Structures are given as structure tokens and as C-alpha cells.
Automatic annotation (TrEMBL), chain A:
Residues 67-282 form the ABC transmembrane type-1 domain. Belongs to the binding-protein-dependent transport system permease family. It comes from Mesorhizobium sp. WSM2240. This is Sugar ABC transporter permease. SUPFAM superfamilies: MetI-like (SSF161098). It is a multi-pass membrane protein. The keyword Transmembrane applies. It is found in: Cell membrane.
TrEMBL record, chain B:
The keyword Cell cycle does not apply. This is sn-glycerol-3-phosphate transport system permease protein UgpE. Belongs to the binding-protein-dependent transport system permease family. Residues 97-291 form the ABC transmembrane type-1 domain. It is found in: Cell inner membrane; Cell membrane.
Length: 291, 305
């Protein structure tokens, strides 16, 4: 079956998937580039305006606010996710019943929906119906309820970060545990005989030998954060004054409620470009760490 | 601990009593560490589980208690009021639930129908320009689907696929396809060549080899792909928001989001929301707990690129 003619048989098997990707990924991608060069709304006729939409983005304060907010969210949440995820991985890496159980529990929120979990935390943080204000008051931490999703965008951002850390910290943990398991046991034992303390072993052995996984999880977290939408759509709804509207949120607002389709497409392309740069950076770094 | 014991063993002048005492101290330290780890594990589990438990408990409060501020920690009595209201909410829970189930089922079907042959073709045949082909198939990993929704929406309007579960499932398939192809190709590559060659000697054609020899061997990959397709589709919000704009075509994440949006106008029905959250979480949790082994294997095979 591996003769010269069989290559076309192979292509036949791949053809449906290829046709699907060409229709529903490549074609929309080309279409999006085309759209981004037009002033395009569902109501008026579309008009070619070249790079006008990109110039418009450059001069649009909301574009910069959203980009800045998205970057701020990404920069704040990534280290928290990485450090907590790694600490929990160290705690639960050994295959003992309680630790394996803890690993499963930490991972559980990863499989539930971002919408459902955002709504759950929206309730927990709610001003007068939320358990967080009630518990903090009962514990004497605060004197009166906090308005988590109100006029202060920073407080809202903090609340969203707490909820997302809860939701996705287990993703990193699982990959870190797998990476730790892949370290040959003898290396750790040799260091132990030499009298290295636990934290010395973590710093000198575990961390360097899991560097590639750390890089991968960082990239996945960064891309995930740059594409954040559900959590802000549900918890803050972009309020106050669109200050918590992320880049994807802005694309959504322009493309659908506002019907500025060309402008939305241009914003999409800019975001896709940023993600592409991040991916290339990761490939470059991981190739270097491989050598 | 072993370094400690060795040092103690080398101390030739020590009496056996000292020896014994040191062993005991060592064991005590070890014991304290064990309790510390156990305590940390329990603390982590508590933090992770509390929100879920709180939500399930809140969904069982009576109508009056669910609307009370400040909220009670534990319901005073158990009631299914919230679930009853959710059942009758707008078009009704059965409609949303079956929409979600339909989209997820179609997504699994599309993913398998496309990636089983693709994985087989990529793993078992010499195809001209295979590397380039693989890159095109994995394009979705680089281009975020969020960025493609506008042109997809237009395409769907032309094809009359907006407001349709098939359309939504197509987007969800596009999201899952790169990962699924990757998993399938790896699974087919692991099937030993001798098995196929024997079958070919017996006169099987490549399709028969796929069905009779390879498929039984890649069942774990089929489960992995299905599980990820289900979880992605069941939970996806943005594409559903864009493609489904008729109340009767809403999926569960949409109806949950819609219920939240009410707050800007009037009061939210917190009890009903909790019931909705609980209902939408249960299938994911059940599949995850049941098929954890495949989920982990799939995640790891996807991560080791």
C-alpha cells in the first residue's frame, strides 16, 4: 500500500479535512483581509478604503484602551497562574492517593465552561447577594460590602483575575506534573545523597528540567489571556465606560452590535498578528532551549 | 531523610540508644512534613471545591431564600423551586439543553468523520507535500477563531447556516480540528506496520485495513477527540453569541449569559442562575471523572509538540 499510486489514495483520506479547513479557516481568513480594507456595514454599500480602518484604529482611543487593558490583564494574571500552578504541581506530583485526588480537584474547573464559571463568580462577588462580601464581613476583614463590579475598573479586574485563576490554574498544574514525572529519578536521588535540600533540588534540578513545559504553559496562558472575552462579557459587561472591554470584546462590539464590519475585521487582523508574533517567539525560544 | 540516616549510620561511636533516638527524630520530622503536605492538600481542595459546593447548595434554596440579602451559607431547607423556574425559563430548559447536546453531538461527529481518515492518511501514506499539508491543517492553532467569526457569520448567512446547530457545530469543529488531527495522526502512527502488511497480504484494501485493523487500535484516541469536542462545544459562548440570535436556537451558555444581562434592567433570579450553572457543569464533570485517563493522555499528547 506504500507504492507510488498509494500517495493519491492517502490524499483522498485527507481530502475531507483539507476541504473543511480551506472552507472554514482559510477562506474566512482571506475574506477578513478583504473586509478589513473596506468600509463595510450591513446597512450601507461597502466601500474600498485601503488601510483606512487601520489608520482609524491607530487614532481610536478605545482601541488603545482595550489593548492596554488586555495587556494589563495578561501581565497581571500570567505570573500568578504560573507560580500557583507550579507550587500545586510540586505539592501533588507524587503518586499518593491524597495528592492524586487533589490534582483531580484542582483540574476539575478546567473542564467546566468559562461562561458557567464566570457566572458563578459573578454571583460570589455580587454586592448584596454574594457570599464573598458576606464571608469577608463575618470575618471582620471589611466593614461594609465592596462593590466589586462597579465604578472602579481595577477592583473589577482583580475579581475577574481571582475567578480565572480558580478556573484555569489546574491546566498548568497537570502539564507541570507530567514534566516533573518525566525527570529521571536518579538525578534527584543523587542530589539528595549530596545533601541538597528540597528547595535546592527544586531550583537546580526540577525547574531547569521542566523549562520547556514552563515555556509552553506560559505561551498558552498568554494567548488565552490576550483572547479573553467570556469572563468580561459576563462579569463586567465591559463596564464601567468600556474600560474593561478586552480586544476580543471590542472586535465583538464593532462587528456585531455596532455593525462596523470592516473596522471589526481590521481589529481582528491586528489581534491575530499579535498572537502570531507570540507563537513565533515561543517556537524560537523552545528551539533554542532544545539545542 | 536517607542522607540523615546514612550520616547517623557512619557515626561509629554512637550507642544504639542514640541511634534509635535519631531514627525517631527523623521519623518525627518526616511525620510533620507528611501532615504539612496533607494539610496543604486539604486546603487546596477546600478552596477549589467551595465555589462549586456553594453554587449547588444555593440552587437548592427556596425562592424566598435565594432572593434574600445577605445570603445564607447553607440552605435552611431543600427545594427544587429554582430548577422548576429554570425548566420554564423563556423557551424552556429542554430546548436549550437539547440545543447544547445537539451542537456537541454534531461537533463530535464532524470531528471524528474528518480526523479519522485524515489521521490515517497522514500517518500511513506517502503524500506529496505532506509537511505543507500538515501546516495548513494545523492553521487553526495560529489563527484564533475569535478573529474569524465575522467572515464566518457572512458565509453562514449565505449558506443559511446561521441560527442552525450545524453551523454552530462547524465553528466548534474548526476550533477543535487541529488538536484532533494531531491526536489522531499520532494514534495511527503507533499502530504496528506488520499488522497492516499481514492484512494486505490477505487481500484487504486500504479502506478495509482502516476499518478492521487500525480503528480498533485507535479507540482511546477516538474517546479523547470526542471528549475534547464535547467539552469545547458544550461550553463555547462567543461563536454561539454571534451565530445564534433566535431565542429558540440558544444553547446553555447563551441562556446563562442572557439571564445575567437582566441585572441591568431588573433583579436577577439568583436561584435560577445557580440551577443553570449546576445543570451545565454536571455533564462536563461526569465525563471528566469517568474518562479522566483519556483526558490527561490527550492533553499531554497535545502539549508535547
Amino acid at each position: 500500500m506504500h507504492s507510488k499510486t498509494s500517495s493519491y489514495v492517502g490524499l483522498l483520506y485527507v481530502a475531507p479535512a483539507l476541504a473543511f479547513v480551506l472552507t472554514f479557516t482559510v477562506y474566512p481568513l482571506v475574506q477578513m483581509v478583504w473586509m478589513s480594507l473596506h468600509n463595510w456595514s450591513l446597512i450601507a454599500a461597502k466601500k474600498f478604503i485601503g488601510f483606512g480602518n487601520f489608520v482609524k484604529a491607530w487614532n481610536d482611543p478605545q482601541f488603545w484602551t482595550s489593548l492596554e487593558f488586555t495587556l494589563k490583564y495578561t501581565i497581571l494574571i500570567t505570573p500568578v497562574l504560573m507560580v500557583l500552578g507550579y507550587l500545586i504541581a510540586l505539592l501533588t506530583a507524587e503518586n499518593r492517593p491524597l495528592r492524586q485526588f487533589t490534582r483531580s480537584v484542582v483540574f476539575a474547573p478546567v473542564v467546566i465552561g468559562l461562561g458557567a464559571s464566570s457566572l458563578l463568580w459573578y454571583w460570589l462577588f455580587s454586592y448584596d447577594f454574594g457570599l464573598i462580601n458576606r464571608a469577608l464581613m463575618d470575618l471582620g476583614v471589611i466593614a461594609k460590602p465592596v462593590v466589586w463590579f462597579g465604578a472602579d475598573a481595577d477592583i473589577a479586574l482583580g475579581a475577574v483575575i481571582v475567578s480565572i485563576v480558580w478556573k484555569v490554574v489546574g491546566f498548568g498544574t497537570i502539564l507541570f506534573v507530567a514534566a516533573i514525572h518525566a525527570i529521571p529519578g536518579e538525578i534527584g536521588e543523587a542530589a539528595m545523597v549530596d545533601g541538597a535540600s528540597y528547595w535546592q533540588r527544586v531550583r537546580r534540578i526540577t525547574l531547569p528540567l521542566t523549562a520547556k513545559t514552563i515555556l509552553l504553559v506560559t505561551l498558552v496562558s498568554v494567548i488565552g489571556s490576550l483572547l479573553a472575552f467570556d469572563q468580561f462579557y459576563i462579569m463586567t459587561a465591559g463596564q464601567p465606560r468600556n474600560l474593561t472591554a478586552t480586544s476580543v470584546f471590542l472586535i465583538y462590539l464593532n462587528s456585531f452590535p455596532y455593525l462596523k464590519l470592516g473596522y471589526g475585521a481590521a481589529l481582528s487582523l491586528i489581534l491575530a498578528g499579535i498572537i502570531l508574533v507570540c507563537t513565533c517567539l515561543q517556537m524560537l525560544l523552545s528551539r533554542r532551549s532544545h539545542a | 531523610m536517607s542522607a540523615f540516616g546514612e550520616a547517623a549510620g557512619r557515626g561509629m561511636s554512637r550507642t544504639s540508644a542514640q541511634h534509635h533516638a535519631q531514627g525517631l527524630v527523623g521519623r518525627l520530622i518526616n511525620g510533620r512534613q507528611k501532615y504539612l503536605v496533607a494539610a496543604a492538600c486539604v486546603a487546596v481542595c477546600t478552596v477549589m471545591l467551595l465555589p462549586l459546593v456553594a453554587s449547588v447548595l444555593a440552587s437548592l434554596k427556596s425562592t424566598e431564600e435565594a432572593a434574600a440579602a445577605p445570603p445564607t451559607y447553607i440552605p435552611r431547607g431543600l427545594s427544587l423551586d429554582s430548577y422548576e423556574r429554570l425548566w420554564n425559563y423563556q423557551a424552556g430548559l429542554p430546548v436549550y439543553f437539547s440545543n447544547s447536546l445537539g451542537a456537541a453531538g454534531l461537533t463530535i461527529l464532524f470531528c471524528l468523520a474528518l480526523t479519522i481518515p485524515a489521521g490515517y492518511g497522514l500517518a500511513k501514506f506517502r503524500i506529496p507535500g505532506k509537511e505543507a499539508l500538515f501546516v495548513v491543517l494545523l492553521l487553526g492553532l495560529i489563527v484564533p477563531y475569535q478573529a474569524l467569526l465575522t467572515p464566518l457569520f457572512f458565509l453562514f448567512v449565505q449558506l443559511k447556516l446561521h441560527n442552525s446547530l450545524v453551523g454552530l457545530a462547524i465553528v466548534h469543529t474548526a476550533i477543535q480540528l487541529p488538536f484532533s488531527i494531531y491526536v489522531m495522526r499520532n494514534a495511527f502512527e503507533a499502530v504496528p506496520r506488520e499488522l497492516e502488511e499481514a492484512a494486505i497480504m490477505d487481500g484487504c484494501n486500504s479502506f478495509q485495513v482502516l476499518v478492521h485493523i487500525c480503528l480498533p487500535a485507535v479507540v482511546p484516541a477516538i474517546i479523547t477527540v470526542s471528549l475534547f469536542a464535547f467539552i469545547t462545544s458544550w461550553n463555547e459562548l462567543l461563536a454561539a453569541l454571534v451565530i445564534m440570535n433566535k431565542d429558540s436556537s440558544f444553547t446553555l451558555p447563551l441562556i446563562l449569559a442572557a439571564a445575567r444581562q437582566q441585572t441591568s434592567i431588573g433583579g436577577t433570579d439568583w436561584g435560577m442562575l445557580q440551577a443553570g450553572i449546576t445543570i451545565s457543569i454536571i455533564p462536563c464533570m461526569a465525563f471528566y471523572l469517568l474518562l479522566q485517563k483519556y483526558y490527561m493522555a490527550g492533553l499531554l499528547s497535545g502539549a508535547v509538540k
